Amino acid sequence: MNIRHLLSASDLDRRDATAVLDTATEMAAMAGREVKKLPTLRGKTVVNLFYEDSTRTRISFEAAAKRLSADVINFSAKGSSVSKGESLKDTALTLQAMGADAVVIRHPASGAPHRLAHWIDGTVLNAGDGTHEHPTQALLDAYTMRSRHGRIEGLKVAIVGDVLHSRVARSNVHLLHTLGAHVTLVAPPTLIPVGVTGWPADVGYDLDAVLPGVDVVMMLRVQRERMTDSFFPSEREYARRYGLDADRVRALPSHAIVMHPGPMNRGMEIAPEVADSARSTIVEQVANGVSVRMAVLYLMLGGVK
Ligand code: NCD
After folding, report:
1. CB of 262 closer than 6 angstroms to any ligand 1 atom
2. Of all atoms in ligand 1, which is nearest to the CA of residue 127?
3. If you measure from the C-alpha of residue 95 to the centroid of ligand 1, how many angstroms do you get, rounded to a whole number?
4. Among 60, 260, 109, 300, which Cα is nearest to 172's?
5. 127: which residues sit within 8 A by CB, 6+ positions away?
6. Could you read off the pLDDT of 18-76 as tens digits, one per residue?
7. Choice among 5, 134, 165, 182 that is catalytic
8. pLDDT digits (tens, 9 = 90+) for 90-110
9. Is residue 305 predicted with pLDDT exceeding 70?
């Protein structure tokens, strides 16, 4: 793989994306072994720089780097000099001075990873920036689709809910397009971004009309922490029109899978019994995340061309 940073899902062409998924398959095979560690990144330092809350992504990157024998430094903005007003640039220069080979960054500002990439010599991996992108989430979602359906090319994927605030949706639209899947975004008109006409995806407003024709339905979290306005009348009304409940699941083709990146608002965008059903890949997505992030670190830092 010949890219230095992974800032957007569109940094990956089909060959690179497929290389990540294939390498992740090999990494997953290793997770079943008694000794889960590879020596590949011995002597390399990976810094997890998290300015925004995270459970899955942070733990997943940490587990991935450790399984490849890298030294891992976890930095969370809370409790650091960031709360004393230190800028991202000064923090970057500190990391640079410590010899970070890779910095995994999550930040509430869209574009922060791009800025960081100008200031440090190492590799920058975007672990979610504002409402912009979350490329490794898209990779783990693609991996999950491929392992359940055997392919990505030609799959029909509905991405449903708060598309406006979702970096997961944006990254998935780019990557799935690169890999030959067909995406339909479904949301209330208030939660569809203005620039969506430029995205390689269809847009629909009626969930019930879309469900019978999909192979994958991906539910998005309603991101209340990013909402400055009221985008829908009430939670009940949202759940009634855009929530995935047991009745709607019955309208899906029998082979279709249900995805969610987590964290979930159970009872709002997804009913608890759907989240916990056999069709749901939610827990699998988390496990796949470690393999996929191992693959990304391995291909980008391991010197494998
Ligand atoms: C997502 C994120 O942080 O963008 N979660 C994740 O990384 N698993 C989605 C979300 O917060 O809703």
Report:
1. yes
2. 7
3. 25
4. 260
5. 48, 50, 54, 57, 58, 61, 104, 105, 106, 134, 136
6. 999 999 999 999 888 888 899 999 999 999 999 998 889 999 999 999 999 999 999 88
7. 134
8. 988 998 898 999 999 999 999
9. no
Q: Taking the model in full, what pTM does it have?
A: 0.96
Ligand 1 centroid distance, CA of 294 (Å): 19
3-state secondary structure of 96: helix
Count the residues in the chain: 305
Asked if 50 and 106 count as a contact pair (C-beta separation under 8 A), the reply is yes
The CB of 107 under 6 Å from ligand 1? The reply is no
Is 57 annotated as catalytic?
A: yes
- 37 belongs to the catalytic site: no
Residue-range domains of the chain with CATH:
9-134+286-302 (3.40.50.1370), 135-282 (3.40.50.1370)
Both tokens of 45, joined, read 């330092």
106 catalytic, yes or no? yes
